[in-house]
Amino acid sequence: MQLWTIQSLAVWEILQRDKVLRCTRQHVIDSWWPEAVESIFRSYDWLREQMIERIGPPPEPDIYPMWAYFQYWDAKQRRPDLRRIRCQYPRGEQHFQLELEVDEKRVLLSDHGDWNYVLSDYYFPSNEGGLEEFEDAGHPEEVTRMMKLESWQKCLDMDFHAPDISSPRDEKRIQATFWELRLEDVVGVRQFEGSGNPAIFGKS
Questions:
Q1: What is the pTM of this model?
Q2: Dist. CA 184–CA 49, nearest whole Å
Q3: DSSP code string of 9-25
């Protein structure tokens, strides 16, 4: 399976040195604003459970997903466009777009847009108006939580499509998660320099 991931110079150097890269709970904490950590772990822990069920357990207990793109924009533009994303990184910082070839048995795909329902802890409706119907139903809290968790399964179904809710597969932005990135997975490397305003990233 062909994937792409964006990594910093430091991470790329670690991968070259250690031959394998894994994300721990502490890495997740360090990557997010403190006030967002609780909600991030709520969604990441759910995703970990899905990965364990669908592709098997992590190599170590404290491992969290590694992320990549399977379909950056749509089926016609699967590889990330560096002209679009350079501004998402501080000006002058060196980053690397790694092209990967990973056994599909190691990978779980999810819809980039639909994943926001999980991140936001919202019910994922099957049709327009479904969210309002769900909220108006007044289910007990335990039932509400169970239905919400069940609804999130749709973000892992690349064939799920509902007008105004989720795009057809060829039009989806599709992300990929896996337990570890191996140096042997890398089949191509493109270096680029960030062009974003350093002030936005807390850098002077």
A1: 0.93
A2: 26
A3: HHHHHHHHHHSEEEEEH
